[in-house]
């Protein structure tokens, strides 16, 4: 919880009690959960201020292949482009030439970060790529690396398998 003038630390025991209440009310054991109505994440779309710079970063540094570059159907002149992030999932971008969309900002209802699972040996290689490219990054728990893309979006590469978080099943 943040005030505009000072940081206010939440009451951690009250927050844990609230998580417990919500968990007890909504979380069902895996065998008792209904099947999801979704079949997967088709794509997450971020905004790019420079199409070529974004392609160089995601394709050359992170090694996510560019799969398509088309005109945005909703905004003529804008590009919509996609990167393969594995498992049939895509990371997409729009550019909005001529619009002053402003810099990346974390706001309520907005994006905190995108976490992308990679194999453990690729994770180490990609951390090295970030270092060689001069990208400021932070490693946490020896399985997560956080950094910002050229437009400031926070990205995490995590060596945990899909459906796991720090060795715990979350799916």
From TrEMBL:
Pfam families named among the record's database cross-references: Glyoxalase
Signal peptide residues on this chain, from the entry's feature table: none
Disordered: region residues: 1-40
Location of the VOC domain: 40-160
Coiled-coil annotated residue ranges, if any: none
Compositional bias annotation for Basic and acidic residues: 8-27
UniProt cross-references to Gene3D superfamilies, sorted A to Z: 2,3-Dihydroxybiphenyl 1,2-Dioxygenase, domain 1
Descriptive protein name: VOC family protein
Species lineage: Bacteria, Bacillati, Actinomycetota, Actinomycetes, Kitasatosporales
């Amino acid at each position: 919880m943040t005030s505009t003038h000072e940081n206010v630390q939440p009451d951690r025991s009250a927050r844990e009690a609230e998580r417990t209440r919500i968990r007890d009310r909504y979380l069902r054991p895996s065998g008792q959960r209904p099947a999801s109505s979704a079949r997967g994440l088709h794509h997450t779309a971020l905004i790019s201020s420079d199409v070529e710079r974004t392609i160089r970063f995601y394709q050359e540094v992170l090694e996510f292949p560019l799969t398509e570059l088309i005109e945005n159907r909703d905004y003529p002149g804008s590009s919509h482009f996609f990167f393969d992030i594995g498992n049939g999932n895509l990371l997409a971008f729009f550019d909005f030439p001529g619009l002053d969309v402003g810099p990346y900002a974390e706001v309520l209802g907005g994006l905190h970060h995108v976490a992308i699972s990679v194999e453990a040996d690729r994770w180490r290689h990609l951390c090295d790529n970030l270092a060689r490219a001069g990208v400021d990054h932070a490693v946490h728990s020896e399985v997560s690396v956080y950094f910002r893309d050229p437009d400031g979006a926070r990205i995490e590469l995590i060596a945990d398998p899909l459906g796991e978080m720090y060795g715990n099943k979350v799916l």
